[in-house]
Automatic annotation (TrEMBL):
Residues 153-193 form the Pyridoxine 5'-phosphate oxidase dimerisation C-terminal domain. The keyword rRNA-binding does not apply. One of its GO terms (molecular function) is pyridoxamine phosphate oxidase activity. Its cofactor is FMN. Belongs to the pyridoxamine 5'-phosphate oxidase family. This is Pyridoxal 5'-phosphate synthase. InterPro entries: Pyridox_Oxase, Pyridox_Oxase_N, Pyridoxamine_oxidase_dimer_C, Split_barrel_FMN-bd. It comes from Mangrovivirga halotolerans. Residues 25-138 form the Pyridoxamine 5'-phosphate oxidase N-terminal domain. The lineage of its organism: Bacteria, Pseudomonadati, Bacteroidota, Cytophagia, Cytophagales. Its EC number is 1.4.3.5. Keywords: Flavoprotein, FMN, Oxidoreductase. SUPFAM superfamilies: FMN-binding split barrel.
Length: 193
């Protein structure tokens, strides 16, 4: 296990090591778990953007199920699994909306088709006419005009309270370290495999 004694620098180191080795198409995918509006846990993969101000940034429609769930209960978790380095990182934290300026930055960094889909579709809402939505997206893509960020598109900054790092070993004696933020500092604990 790395000798880094703070979780954010350790996360960045592990993330960079995985990115340099990975062959997966979306290396920034992370599982976001929320408490559902029906009190059942809910998990889905989202795109991790970066660490900003010691917090994990994810983006998407604020009026989607995840956005509504976070609005109701902002205690969330992120789970990273990295195949090449055989490492897992679990983050528990408090989610808050990112600023409009940051949302604009992330939205404009997206590819054109993603922007169009975000403009036309209401993520996760029921539809009886998927073909009509596809047609609307295709028509808008062919116009190839600038897309403004939809008012309900933004993101969340997840301030961690716990981060667990686990490095898998063939012996099954996995190395697990838990960082907990207490009294304004990180406390490190070694966990059993």
């Amino acid at each position: 296990m790395d000798k880094i004694r703070q979780p954010i620098p350790l996360f960045k180191k592990w993330f960079e090591e995985e990115i340099n080795l990975t062959k997966v198409q979306i290396p920034t995918a992370v599982c976001l778990s929320t408490i559902g509006i029906d009190d059942f846990p809910n998990a889905r993969y989202v795109s991790f953007k970066e660490i900003h101000d010691e917090s994990f940034i994810i983006t998407g429609p604020l009026n989607s199920r995840k956005g509504i769930e976070i609005e109701k209960n902002n205690k969330v978790s992120l789970t990273f699994w990295w195949t090449e380095t055989e490492r897992q990182i679990r983050v528990q934290g408090i989610a808050t909306k990112i600023s409009e300026e940051l949302a604009e930055k992330y939205f404009h960094a997206r590819d054109f088709n993603s922007k169009v889909v975000s403009m036309i579709c209401e993520q996760g809402k029921e539809t009886s006419t998927i073909k009509l939505l596809e047609q609307k997206v295709l028509e808008r893509v062919t116009k190839n005009k600038k897309i403004d960020k939809p008012k309900d598109w933004g993101g969340f900054s997840i301030k961690p309270v716990r981060i667990e790092f686990m490095e898998f070993r063939k012996s099954r004696f996995h190395d697990r370290k838990l960082f907990e933020f207490k009294d304004e500092k990180w406390i490190l604990k070694q966990l059993q495999p």
